[in-house]
Amino acid sequence: MASNQKQKKPAKVRPAGLPTREQVMDFIAESDTPAGKREIAKAFGLKGQEKIALKALLKDMADEGLIDIGPARAFHKMGGVPKVTVLRIVDVDDTVLIATPERWEAEGQPAPRLRVVERSKRGALTIGDRILARTEEAGRGWIAHPMKKLAKASEELLGVVEKMADGKLWLRPVDKRIRKDTPISDAGDAKPGDLVLAEPHGRPPRISARVTDILGDPFAPRSFSLIAIHKHGIPHVFPERVEEEALAVASLPLHEDKREDLRDLPIVAIDPVDARDHDDAVWAAPDEDEANPGGYKAIVAIADVSYYVRPGSALDKEARKRGNSVYFPDLVVPMLPHQLSSDMCSLRAGEDRAAMACHLTINAQGKVTAWRFTRAVIRVAAVLAYEDAQAAIDGTKDNGLLEPALKPLWACWALLRKARQARDPLALDLPERRVVLDEMGKIVSVAVRERLDAHMLIEDYMIAANVAAAKALEAKKAPVMYRVHEPPSRDKLVALKDYLATFDISFALGQVVKPSTFNQLIAKIGEAEEKPQIMEMILRSQTQAYYAPNNMGHFGLALGSYAHFTSPIRRYADLLVHRALVGAYGLELPAPKGKDIPDRSSLSQDDYENMGRVGEMISGHERRAMEAERETIDRYVAAYLAAHVGEVMPARITGVQNFGFFATVEGLGGDGLVPVSTMGAEHFFYDEAGKALQGVESGDRYTVGQRLELRLAEADPINGSLRFELPDSPALRGGPVKRDRTRPGIKRGRPTNIRHIGSKRGKHKR
C-alpha cells in the first residue's frame, strides 16, 4: 500500500486479502490500542485460511527482526515500544525520570530507556514506581506520558523460603503488613531458609511465586539492612563512572590562598560515638567588640561538598538520585562515594579540609545579630563523642580542649538556649533507639540514646547556622531550598480536641495554634499518668516536614525561615543551599584544570529551573529512608526479643483499633499486636474519639500512650513483627506458635466481642 493510503484509525475498513509486511508495520505503528493477531485480522477483514496465513506472516516478520511481541500478545516494531504499555521507573537523569518496559523480550537488544514527561507535580513519581503510559518516539529516543500510577512492586516479592510438613515450599513475606504466604511454583536453587526475590505467577486466587534471586541467609550480618534496601529500591551500588569521578575530584587542590584560613582555631567536631562521617565542626569565643557586651562570636564549619560535587557531574546526578544517606545499624548507604563521604569531605582531626564557614555574631540575649559565609580551610582539633564532650564539661574526664574549646562553646550555647526558650519551639521528648552490634554483626543490645546537653548544644548551633543560611540567601534574593514544616491541619486538630475531651481537657479550635500552645498543654498536665498518652497524640497531630523552594516556615521550630545547610555529605538539600551561597556571595574558586569536571560549583540553570521538582523528589527519598531505617531496627528488635518469648515486660500502647491494640516494649521499640480475641470473653467497646478499647463488665480501658505489663507471645525477626498477650490470659505452651498449613484459617472481620461507640463513627469511616 502506498504511503499516502495509510490509515490513521484502525477502525476504518481495509481491503480484504493478506496484507504486506509494510501494511502490517504501518498498522502496528499507527494503532492507538495494543495490536495483536486478532486486531490485525479484523482490520484487514481476514477470515479462515487468511488468518492462518497471517499467523505465519507474523512469525516470519518476528524471525526477520521486524516486529516482536509484548504484553497481552500485542505486536510492536522490533526495538520499539507499544503505544500503551506498563513501564517501571528505574533511574533519574537530573530531574528527568527514566523508565523501561516492564516486559522486554527482544532478544539481543537492550530495553529502551524512555524519558517520563509528567503532566503535573501532584503525586510525584520516583524510582521503583510502575506506571501505565502512552509512548511515542521523539528525536532519537522515546518519551512516556503517564496515564496511571500502578501498584508499586506488585511484580516483585521479597520473602523467606519455608518448607512445610507436606514437603511443599512457601514464600513467607518480610513485610509485616502482608499476612498471606505464597506457594512457590519454581524455587530454582533456593533452599528452605533462604531470603529471596520472586515474581508472582498466575491469577488470583491461584497466585504462586517463581524465585528470581537468592539473597542469602536472612539472619546473616547485614541481611536485615539488605531486606530494607531491596524492599524499598534504595540505590546502594555506585556506577563505575561515579566512583572514578570521586577519585578525580578528591585530588582537587584546596586553594588555601583563596580560602579563609581558620586552621589556628581550636575547632572541634562533636558527633555520635558510632558516626561514619563528620561534616560539621564548631568554635566559639567571647566577642571582643565593645558594641556587643556579653556577646559571642561563633563559627559553624561545614564540609565544602559543593566544591567536589558540581552541578551536572556524574556525582551530582547520582547524589540527586539518592537524595540522602541511609543509616542502618550495621551499614550506611551513603549519598556520596566513600572517597568523599568518609575521606575528603569528612572533617578528620589534624587534617586540612575544605569548609564552608558560617560566622555568627550572638548578643547577650542569644539573638544572632549578624552572619557571613566564607569558603575556608580548617584543621579540626579533635573529633569528640557526645559522651566524651559532656564528661569533660562535667569534670568526670580530662580533656586538653576543655578551656580553649569546650567551655567557650558551652558559654555561647547558654545564650543560644535563651533565644530558644524565648522562641518556645515544640518540645516533645522522643526517645531514639540505638542497636548495638558486636564485631560479627550479631545484636548485643537495644538501648535508648541518652539525651545530653552536648546533643542539645550541637543542635542549637546547627539551627542557628541553618537559619542564617536561609536569611542570607533571602537577602540576596537567591533561590532557597527551604525545610518546611506546616502547622497541623484542622482535621488533625479536631481529632486531638476529641481525644483530649476524653480526659476532660479543653482545647479551643478558634485559637492561633503555635508550638507554645502544645507546650503549655503538656505543662498543665504535669507528670500525670496520662502525659505519655497525650504527648503521643500531639505528635500524631503534626504534619510531616518536606523540602520546597516556597517558604511556609517551620512550625515545630517556631521559625519563619529555615533551610538545611549543615549536612551536605548526607543530604542533597544542603548541597543545593551551599551552591546557592557560593553564587549569591561570589565564593567561586578557580575552575579545575586538565580534568573532565564541570567548571562551576554554584547553582546551575538546571538547579534553578527544577528546584520544585527536586524538592519533591528528595522529600520522597527522605520518607523512603526513614521507613527503611525504622523497619530494619524493628527486625533487630524482634531478633533480640526472640530469646524472651513468654516473658512479661513493660510496654506502652501505640495504637488502638477495633480488633485490638498495638504496643511497644519500653526502651526497645518494635510494634506488636494484642488481638482482642485473646483478651477473654468480655465484650469491649471501641471508642474511636478516645482511641480506646473499654471492657463492658470490668471497665478496663486500653488507650494510646498507656503503660502496662504484657507477655511477649511471638517475635518474628524476618518481618519485624511482635505479638503480645495480657499477663492474665492463658500462656502459650511450648514457646512461639509455629506456622502450620494444617491449621484452620483465621476468621476475618470484626471480633464478636467488639462494639463500636462514638458520635463520630460515620465521619471516621474509611
Automatic annotation (TrEMBL):
Domain of life from the UniProt record: Bacteria
Keywords: Cytoplasm, Exonuclease, Hydrolase, Nuclease, RNA-binding
Location(s), subcellular: Cytoplasm
Domain S1 motif, first and last residues per copy: 646-727
Basic and acidic residues: bias regions: 182-192
Alphabetized PROSITE patterns for the sequence: RIBONUCLEASE_II (PS01175), S1 (PS50126)
Entry's EC annotation: 3.1.13.1
HAMAP family on file: RNase_R (MF_01895)
Family: Belongs to the RNR ribonuclease family. RNase R subfamily.
Protein name, as recorded: Ribonuclease R
Organism: Sphingobium naphthae
Gene name linked to the record: rnr
